[in-house]
Amino acid sequence: MTYSVAVSGASGYAGGEILRILAAHPDVEIRTVTAHSNAGQPLIQHQPHLRSLAHLTLQETTPEILAGHDVVFLALPHGQSGQYTDALGDTALVIDAGADHRLESAADWDTFYGGDFHDPWVYGVPELAVAGAKQRERLVGASRIAAPGCNASTVSLSLAPGVAAGVIDASDIVTVLAVGPSGAGKALKPNLLASEILGSANPYAVGGTHRHIPEIRQALAAAGASAETIRISFTPVLVPMARGILATSTAPIAGEATDAEIRDAWEAAYGDETFVQLLPAGDFPRTADVLGANTALMGLAIDRAANRVVVVTAVDNLVKGTAGAAVQSMNIALGLAEGTALSVNGVAP
């Protein structure tokens, strides 16, 4: 069976990455692409790297145009998906790459986003530990999927194995992330200009204000941490690379956990996974190694002097962080081979 697909926000970074992956997917037909201010223009004008999709023209983003497809991807700014998802009740599978359906708590939504709160959907991080299983099981046959925030899924994947195994203490998590500006989208903003970014590193959303914090708390609670005790110090730093996240996350060692028990927790969680890979002891990833890949590479260190576990994880924020996770979740929901159209191989140099 070939599934018809519509992609909204197709002129942006996330929408373009979804299209790049789907263009190589044997089981889908990209039938419709939509945008807002760019509607009426050729897709190729905004995504010149997508040569195989040069025949497509951006249409207006309306429920009527998005309806009638087997799968709809919404790659819209936060707060804009809900108006369309409410009107797509007859669509078999809708995947939101924005934040509108990620959070379970209306209070968290009001605090970190504001505006109308929409019901949470199945979270699109298949490898994430949840209640003694994996999120993958919840994605089978799902009709509504919330793709993750790129920083949130990177940190959650980094720490969930330790939480689930009880070898780290989630009450004192510290994470610092080097992130590329493509995670902020294509909108023109002075702080994202090349002249502001090149040759500089710039922290942002410092002091517990980043919107991905409640998403991380929610994921770690699902992995087994007490929601009331989870504490996260989260500091993202904008660095001059177009793509990529390098997240360094630390947490105290719980109780009398041994070095072997700690490493075993991550090896057990990801030993059989294709797209989340724990590197050998002493090795740590580079963002260059995951460029263009749907892979999260992870290095683990045990700092006994500080009594903390240190996890360093690299992802491509536009692939494993967003579009790749969305397509991987689609594959699972539709009963297709999970890795269809997704690669573990990066691009180098």
Structure in words:
The chain contains eleven helices and 16 strands. The protein is an alpha/beta fold and 349 residues long. α1 (13-22) crosses α11.
The total of beta strands comes to: 16
Structural class, please?
Answer: alpha/beta
Largest sheet: 7 strands, parallel
Strand content: 15-25%
Looking at how many chains there are and whether they match, the oligomeric state comes to: single chain
Roughly how much helix do the residues carry, as a percent range? 25-40%
Q: Largest beta sheet: what is the strand line-up?
A: 3-2-1-4-5-9-6
**Secondary structure tally, helices:** 11
Rg (C-alpha, Å)? 19 Å
Order of helices and strands: EHEHEHEHEHEEEHEHEHEHEEHEEEH
Low-confidence stretches: none
Tell me, what's the shape? Answer: globular
N- and C-termini, Cα separation: 38 Å
Summarize model confidence as the mean pLDDT: 96
How are the SSEs placed, and which strands pair?
Elements: E1 3-8, H1 13-22, E2 28-35, H2 43-46, E3 58-60, H3 63-66, E4 71-74, H4 82-85, E5 93-96, H5 106-112, E6 122-123, E7 129-130, E8 133-134, H6 136-139, E9 144-146, H7 150-165, E10 173-179, H8 194-197, E11 202-203, H9 213-223, E12 232-238, E13 245-252, H10 259-270, E14 276-278, E15 296-303, E16 308-315, H11 319-334
